[in-house]
Write a structure and sequence with these properties.
GO cellular component, one term: cytoplasm
Helix content: 25-40%
Domain Histidine biosynthesis HisG C-terminal: 229-301
Bound molecules: adenosine-5'-triphosphate, 1-O-pyrophosphono-5-O-phosphono-alpha-D-ribofuranose
Structural class: alpha+beta
Strand content: 25-35%
Strand order of the largest sheet: 7-6-8-5-9
Number of strands: 14
Radius of gyration: 24 Å
Keywords: Amino-acid biosynthesis, ATP-binding, Cytoplasm, Glycosyltransferase, Histidine biosynthesis, Nucleotide-binding, Transferase
Oligomer: single chain
Subcellular location: Cytoplasm
Distance between the termini: 35 Å
Largest sheet: 5 strands, mixed
Main location: cytoplasm
Number of helices: 8
Amino acid sequence: MRNKHEEPKTDDANPYTEGRLQQATLDLLAGCDVQFRRETRLDIALVKNLPIALIFLPAADIPTFVGEGRVDLGITGRDQVAEHDATLPAGETSNVEELLDLGFGACKLQVQVPEKGDLKEAKDLVGRNVVTSFTALTDAFFRNLEGVEAGQKLSTKIKYVGGSVEAACALGVADGIVDLVESGETMKAAGLKAIDTVVSSTAVLVKSRKSNSDLLTLLSSRLRGVITAQKFVLCQYNIPRDQLSVASKITPGKRAPTITALEEEGWVAVSSMVEKKSIATVMDELIKVGASDILVMNIANSRTD
Ligand SMILES: Nc1ncnc2c1ncn2[C@@H]1O[C@H](COP(=O)(O)OP(=O)(O)OP(=O)(O)O)[C@@H](O)[C@H]1O
Ligand SMILES: O=P(O)(O)OC[C@H]1O[C@H](OP(=O)(O)OP(=O)(O)O)[C@H](O)[C@@H]1O
């Protein structure tokens, strides 16, 4: 699936331009030293340095294959897992287990209505036409709004379309839609506004509850290592020993900061993992409590469990 805002890519290094989650997933696998060569047109690739095969499937189908235990691990959007789970009969537990939030592919499945109009909140759509590619989640959402049990008839009419969902209101097929929003450009261009959120999503690593092996543990541990490395930076600084306890509270690390004595009397060096998104604030606070020579380094890989 190509992003409709982008021109087709002609990147020789990656001839597979489909899939919003694909490039980040390939980068993640490279970071785990999973080596493979995918032949053009083939959806399966044997890994050279591990006894596993990779299968390239549409994001929406991955939860089904993983749930059936036909594929042991999968990378897809949380929205797709939620949609799969919403199709299960009441009382049936999903065989798709989320192991790890991968941090990329962030988007929201939102209820959207024409910007100009009198529909203000999701309950205004009750009894009307709603178009979506996520029929199970939309059904569950409106059942909840209408207070209707599974098996009873819903008054809201939910129709499936496979793509270009945002066109449904302008074409008179829908009063509202339930569709993914990332930048919001598509919604805006179609004259729609979001009035509720059904699911907030990022890409996730999922595992089949039917599968278990040392190899799965090894692979998920490698993936966790790369994701942790991407989320954190290593922060090193020098601090007067009498300020160490206050500085340690600012940089507590994943387990605890590493403290090393300095040749200079009364000073210590501290090394600690800090979340990338808060490093600027952490540096500001360290300066305030007397830290100096603050260095921040990217982490190529990590293994903390
Ligand atoms: N703007 C977006 N639109 C659609 N999906 C998005 C967006 N941003 C992130 N995503 C995530 O990407 C998932 C869709 O992934 P992707 O495009 O890889 O689908 P695909 O079916 O594998 O691709 P293809 O149709 O090319 O085979 C969504 O379920 C969602 O989790
Ligand atoms: O908020 P934005 O960044 O604009 O992204 C959201 C749009 O992207 C997806 O469509 P996609 O491009 O996958 O095409 P499709 O409509 O054919 O599914 C999604 O269904 C929205 O239409």
